[in-house]
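Design job #97: recover the sequence.
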């Protein structure tokens, strides 16, 4: 590939970043609250609820995300003859998957907070909801940020799996261009774009960690 072809390919790949970022942002927005809910239910004193959450986490962590994407997209059709948007299927599959991983991170953070802080909050008149969101959760966020950053970066790169059910994101475009031009340069360019995105995500998490240092 000459310079002009490389620039054109770079422009084509750049047009696919939007889809990759949409998958990333929507998954992040929906999987975080779901992960918190699962973490809280996982710690529930009701054993049935706790075991159900354990089963969900085991199932998601024990099976490939590629299989989960295929099941989420094709099962409704084969079971109920209902088909729906491929992009929506990707978001649902990613949210279900990453919520399981985020829940374990949140759970470890919640369990690291001394019980004495909860008791002190109750003594001051806070109810359970207020105690969790005003006392526990801010400290948990500070504790889990390094682990969260790893999972979020993984999510950013995993968006390339959207092509499994035909969603055209950046890496799918890179593969098409590589085949069309008989060159690996499009794949290298895609790798460069991912590297830039990961760099910016890392900066955001580093800034967040510095802002939360007052909890130390």
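Job complete. Output follows.
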């Amino acid at each position: 590939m000459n310079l002009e072809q490389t620039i054109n390919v770079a422009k084509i790949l750049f047009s696919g970043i939007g889809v990759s970022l949409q998958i990333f942002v929507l998954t992040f927005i929906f999987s975080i609250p779901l992960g918190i809910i699962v973490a809280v239910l996982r710690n529930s004193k009701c054993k049935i609820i706790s075991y159900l959450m354990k089963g969900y986490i085991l199932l998601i962590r024990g099976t490939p995300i590629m299989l989960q994407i295929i099941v989420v997209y094709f099962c409704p059709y084969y079971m109920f003859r209902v088909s729906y948007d491929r992009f929506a299927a990707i978001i649902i599959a990613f949210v279900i998957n990453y919520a399981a991983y985020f829940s374990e991170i949140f759970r470890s953070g919640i369990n690291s907070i001394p019980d004495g802080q909860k008791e002190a909050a109750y003594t001051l008149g806070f109810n359970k909801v207020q105690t969790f969101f005003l006392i526990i959760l801010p400290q948990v966020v500070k504790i889990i940020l390094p682990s969260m950053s790893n999972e979020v970066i993984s999510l950013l790169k995993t968006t390339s799996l959207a092509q499994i059910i035909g969603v055209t994101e950046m890496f799918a475009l890179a593969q098409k261009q590589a085949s069309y031009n008989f060159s690996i340069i499009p794949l290298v360019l895609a790798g460069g774009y991912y590297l830039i995105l990961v760099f910016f995500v890392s900066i955001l998490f580093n800034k967040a960690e510095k802002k939360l240092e007052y909890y130390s």
